[in-house]
Design brief:
The chain has one helix and seven strands. It is of the alpha+beta class and 144 residues long. The strands form two sheets. Strands 4-3-2-5 form a four-stranded antiparallel sheet, with helices on one face. Strands 1-6-7 form a three-stranded antiparallel sheet, with helices on one face. It is rod-shaped, with a radius of gyration of 28 Å. The model has no long low-confidence stretch (mean pLDDT 90).
């Protein structure tokens, strides 16, 4: 019987050793791959959120443009990160900072091709006023 108990102890030690080696392999190989995937998904989510909020802004611009002189619209934009939106000839662009410190350019077009502006948006909720004053020839965009 003494021999049998020693073999059980040896088997327990071998299972424990295999378990520890398995945990080490998971930490060395699998977790870095998962973290890279999570960074990529987070980058896509941030870029998509920025584009979605820019499209919301373009919808407001297009509605004011379609309504003509004297119209005004308030748009609420919820940004995941601080952003800057440049508007040149009706094309809205923003550079989104990715996890690898590179930038992805996001672009959306509006109907008002004469529109030129720059808007700095903070992380969180931003209130943006889009107004075409009666005596003006251009739409004005400002953050409150």
């Amino acid at each position: 019987m003494g021999v049998l108990k020693e073999e059980n102890g040896q088997m327990s030690f071998e299972y424990l050793l295999l378990f520890i080696i398995s945990l080490i392999l998971i930490n060395v190989f699998i977790l870095p791959m998962i973290s890279t995937s999570i960074d990529s998904i987070d980058d896509l989510n941030t870029a998509y959120n920025t584009k979605s909020q820019m499209e919301e802004l373009v919808t407001g611009i297009n509605q004011v443009y379609a309504s003509g002189s004297g119209s005004k619209r308030t748009v609420y934009l919820n940004m995941k990160k601080d952003s800057q939106i440049d508007i040149n000839n009706g094309i809205l662009t923003s550079d989104v900072l990715l996890s690898d410190n590179s930038y992805k350019k996001v672009e959306v077009r509006s109907n008002d091709l004469s529109l030129n502006n720059r808007i700095t948006l903070n992380r969180g909720l931003n209130r943006v006023i889009i107004e075409w004053k009666g005596n003006s020839s251009q739409i004005e965009i400002g953050k409150i």
